[in-house]
Amino acid sequence: MAALLLLGLVGTLLAAVFAGGRAGGATAAPNAMRVEERTMWTRTDDVFAARVRLPPGHGEGELFVSVRGALAVGDDPTGADLPDEVAALEPIPVAAATEAVVVRIPVSGTSGERGPNPAATSGEQGPNPAATSGERGPNPAATSGEQGPNPAATSGEQDPEGAGGIALDPGVYPIVLDWVPRTQLQVHAPVVTHLVHLPAANLVPRPLAIVLTLDADVTWNEGLLVIDDADRFDAALRVLSAYPDTPVVLDAPAAVLAALDGPGVSPGSATLVADLVERAEIANQGFVRLPAGSWVRASLHQTVVDQFAAGEVALTEIAGRPPLGTLQITGPTDGLEILTWHAARGTKAVVVDAERLAVRTDRDDASDEVGTGGASGRSPARRDSARPDGKSTTESANTESTHSWSAAPYTPVVVAGVEPPIVAMPAIDAARVGTGTEAIARLLAELSIAALEPGAPRPEPVIFRVDADDDASVENLAALLAALAEPGAVAAGGADQLIGALSFPGTLATAELRPAVGSEPADEARTVASIQADVASFASAAGANDPASIQLGRLALLSATASPAERQSLAATARASVLENLDGLELAEPGLITVTSHRADLPVTVRNGSRFDLDVRVGIRGEDVARTGSAPLVVQIAAGETKDMGVPVELRRSGTIEAELYLETPDGRIRLEQRTVRLRSTAISGLGVLLSVAALAFLALWWARSVRNRRRAATHALASTLEEGPAPPTIADSSTVPPRDRTFAEPVP
What we know:
The chain is an alpha/beta fold. The chain is built from 15 helices and 36 strands. Strands 12, 15, 16, 17, 18, 19, 20, 23, 24, 25, 26 and 27 form a twelve-stranded mixed β-sheet that branches. Strands 2, 4, 5, 6, 10 and 11 form a six-stranded mixed β-sheet that branches. Helix 3 (about 255-260) packs parallel to helix 6 (about 300-320). The N and C termini lie far apart (about 220 Å).
């Protein structure tokens, strides 16, 4: 028995020594003490209250409550190096059956002096002077004697009443809670919570924008965009609906919102989504959440441009107003190319994961992450100090090139290498701050330090990101909205307020953006390009604004993020739908067509048996025939119309010619109909005409020359005769000359 008593005494002493020597700051171990509820903001004459859940099976013991001095920018609010103790409550005895204790600390204001314990001596911020050195004395603000349970408390809880008040200046004060069992060797880590005391007036809250992300796999089902378990976001949307006046930025691809507006969604879910779309500021997104950085690095810029263009159109149609242009939510693979593109389109700030931002230290071989700070898990410290002229300067918080934690772990930075300049805002989420009411209260206390420290520059705005499909995020959202419902040092704001509160250009640090490495979308790109080409071909025929074109366009956009098997299925669906929609175009059988010249209008009859008004391109192809004119011949044919037209052609020879007459989409990608036509040309060919003309010309020339030569010869003979005179008489042969009358005439008298 003596050994057991000695063992218990040693355990108690060890626990007391360990509790007295710890400054607090370690996270409570599993099944350890934790803070379940607490007052977020206090003002003069308020009472800070926190419900502390004790470890299971704790036995009897005491709860020690210590108030530390106000935190300054650069202090770690939960680390081991907390400010000195300024006040301590009287230890609270706890029975073995008690499950939770409500700690109450009345607060009163001061006349401007920061030393909050009115009982402390001048220049000293120690515990109550009644306590001896190294011993926790009771706080004069606490009641004397035993603190019994409050009748209003539930069974198994103690709710000690406080009296008077601790005088505090505005600021953030760590409250260290130490549970010390009386008879057990087990030592529990102390828990640190925070009392945030606000000024009576002239408070400028730090802006915090809530970004709600809706994301899910969207599939294609008989022409409709579908989400499995469409009510998965209902819990988050119900939480938001309880705070209708709180600004919220909605981050959702257009495909998700379009699917949530479909016929397969329950009326309750559809109403919650509609209310959210009506109240929220909608961030611009692609039609699907594409890994844009990977696609750009694969030289697929146009796909990214098409996605965002289609997303903007769809979001505008869904919400009835254009999406935000100044704030952009980036993806993990987005690099400088994407940010430069956003900046050129008017984006002022982008939301990024903190791990992707690295600020160079003053050591050449080191860099630190925004929001992680190496082993400390915090961001690089940049302490802003006020100058006498009222301006602010930025100086290193540590001259040895190491980064202490900053009270603004999610401070925006300017992204290096982007023109025009753009600000990156590290996102706060459940993965970084933990889950639950106390995690959110601790975050808000940390963010309040810069807002409440006297003389500190205006704190930068921050982003809190919530995944609506994650239970931990939804729990944090509920805690955050409840805390921000009451005015405090941090206030919810919209995107415009957020952008307006940035110190830009100003004292923001510059950071490098490190995109995550994504797989090269080579195979995806080829299939997506084929689907997009088929859809674009149909749109060139039916019109880009036709409902069928819009529907098929969404299918093409959706294929960019589908699995390989789904993508191949979508490709087959797209081609089959295009061909089915264009089916019904017919070319009439022309028979034998006779033409009498080498250039003629070929008579063609086309019937449109589809349900669309279509633009089609008419063409003819053959060895001895070609269509005249350089521009494509595109004609519009209404649904059900039969149209006669003339196709101008040129025949290269006479006789019977065969050619192929066809119809295709205006871009020439899809052949819609074709027929073989027979042409009979009775026209003389150009070469025959040329030879005939040449022969006639030759004959004419020969005949002319012959006539001219004969005439010359005759003229020459006549001229020669005239020059020589009459020819001498000749004696004819008597045998040939007839006898003449030889009677002589009588002489004349």
